[in-house]
Write a structure and sequence with these properties.
The chain is mainly alpha-helical. The protein has three helices and no strands. The chain has a domain of 54 residues.
């Protein structure tokens, strides 16, 4: 988001995005129920079409963002260049060159040890 907005506006943009998402989660099913109770499924699909059309229009108006770094061609080299190795916790590292992401012994399972046959 730093490439679209100035850094000072990023917290406000995140808050606005979170608020809009929660309002949509709360009001979407409510409005769908009201549309279905008052009209029909065709009206609900028409409202859905209107919302998706607006979203597509808004997405099309976003500014073009050129790549931040040098342009590269995707291919096998981009995959092979990032090797991975096992870390001390037994998981694979996603860091370039296979660097370890954490150090120390593997994490222990929590809770008491199981005794007897496995559940299920």
């Amino acid at each position: 988001m730093l490439r679209v907005l100035p850094e000072a506006l990023v917290p406000s943009a995140n808050t606005l995005s979170f608020t809009a998402s929660n309002v949509g989660l709360a009001l979407g099913p409510l409005l769908a129920g009201l549309i279905l109770a008052r009209w029909s499924f065709a009206a609900a699909y028409a409202a859905d079409l209107a919302v998706f059309t607006f979203a597509l229009y808004a997405a099309a108006r976003l500014p073009a963002l050129p790549p931040a770094g040098p342009a590269t061609t995707p291919g096998l080299r981009s995959v092979v260049g990032c090797t991975s190795s096992r870390t001390t916790s037994g998981t694979r590292s996603a860091q370039p060159g296979g660097r370890r992401t954490r150090s120390g012994p593997p994490a222990r399972p929590r809770g008491p040890p199981r005794v007897g046959p496995a559940p299920g």
